């Protein structure tokens, strides 16, 4: 599945929480109208299909993963061999696992940073007077609509030894830098990360572009009168106003990094020598091939899920704490505006 | 946003943006240029002439269509009930659903693979459609409920006073009213299902069940790494998505931004 789906769901989780909490009256609504609620038809049957498909399948899978993680199992007809906690202890002493965690962290930090800066800059540029803005917009967004799996051969073409990038480098006199980007363990992660940036800036762009239409132009005007330059306005006035998007993007990118599979598998297969291994590729390798162990894959899945849940809760918590401090800054901006 | 008072600064901005989008074009340029190497358009003819090429698109359409129908019906029904009907412990069910929002699909493949084997579902479209639906529904329900909450209750009460039953409320009031959000969600599900790679790779093991994201690998096997043809196949695969995006730009962007912008 494309990264988009996870991004969307993840972001919805963030905004959904805020929405539910800002609307406590909803939960008590039906109780208030108890007398009239007899008139309301019962809706349980209506939520049943969604519950069965989604809650049923997902909770079942998690429970089954938890069960399998205590066994060693080659799948199919082979019998389950109980191993206790061995899968988990093996994972934590597996250098490949730590390599995958390290790669995930690096991937997250770089792609998130590039996505925020690139997204904000492009969104601001498209809100300025630029000729043929729509053409640029389409070019920026195409990478997020075309499947990573479809684009993978193109990326290989760019990065391989006799590929486009090396030819560009030679053409501009930097031929010394030309190298086998995908094939050596020092640069394979870089390729995966840059491909990730390529495929995600457009998403940041769409969200920031939409959010910027809702910024009060008077506030920007006030900033300008105070003598702020374009970039000062962008990073001191615009960016704080689209903070909720930045937080959503942080969580989305975390999940994307944790589940990364498509482009990594097709471009580097996690190699060479596990240098671009991610949790997604590790789990997939354990579920396919002759030496597969679905128990080990399940234990990895459980760990991945726990990391995903824990980190999104932490990001949401800290963002909410900081959000509580935010109104003050907002008011100060308003009063500054009045002074002007 | 950027203020460009002078001609110089306007040209500068235009130039900066142009330079900025160049990296986005490099892979696309490489793909198209390399796909024309050797026999030129003959590569495309060869790719299109491969028996079963259309089958990949048909299979993707089946996966996307099946996911859309299931998600559309389950989502609107659930969002309608969560928003407008009486359910005991409503929020408990809602949060059971929402807890699945952050789940990466790679977590599902080990348990689902063994289950699919046990139930003989391996190599059927259900093995892909159902997990896609399961993973998307929490999100689509959240967005649709937010939208339907904004439709005034009085509208439904009026229809009920006129004697409409719940079915009638759903089909004659809710479905037409929820059309804007439904279109955005359908476009989103379409793209996600069309672009899904891991689930089809694991579950659609039969040769005649490949989806478009599996095409590059198929052609690698077919042509023994004849790169121009593999890339020609990738271009042919990418074109429908790009055309669909350009035609549905607004709906697509609304789908992506739904829920993010309050």
Structure description:
The complex is a heterodimer of chains A (340) and B (262). Chain A is mostly helical and 340 residues long. Chain A has one domain: MetI-like (MetI-like fold, Orthogonal Bundle). Chain A contains 16 helices and two strands. In chain A, strands 1-2 form a two-stranded antiparallel ribbon. In chain A, helix 1 crosses helix 13, helix 4 crosses helix 16 and helix 6 packs parallel to helix 10. The radius of gyration of chain A is 24 Å and the shape is globular. Chain B has one domain: MetI-like (MetI-like fold, Orthogonal Bundle). Classes of the chains: A mainly alpha (340), B mainly alpha (262). Chain B: InterPro entries: MetI-like, MetI-like_sf. Chain B: This is Carbohydrate ABC transporter permease. Chain B: It is found in: Cell membrane. Chain B: One of its GO terms (cellular component) is plasma membrane.
Write the layout of secondary structure elements.
The complex is a heterodimer of chains A (340) and B (262).
Chain A: H1 3-21, H2 25-32, H3 34-37, H4 44-68, E1 71-72, E2 81-82, H5 86-92, H6 95-126, H7 133-145, H8 148-159, H9 164-171, H10 188-212, H11 217-225, H12 230-241, H13 243-259, H14 262-267, H15 279-287, H16 294-339
Helix pairs in contact in A: 1-13, 4-16, 6-10, 6-13, 7-10, 11-12, 13-16, 15-16
Chain B: H1 7-35, H2 41-49, H3 53-84, H4 90-98, H5 106-118, H6 126-149, H7 153-161, H8 166-177, H9 179-195, H10 198-203, H11 215-223, H12 227-247, H13 249-257
Helix pairs in contact in B: 1-12, 2-12, 3-6, 3-9, 6-9, 7-8, 9-13, 11-12
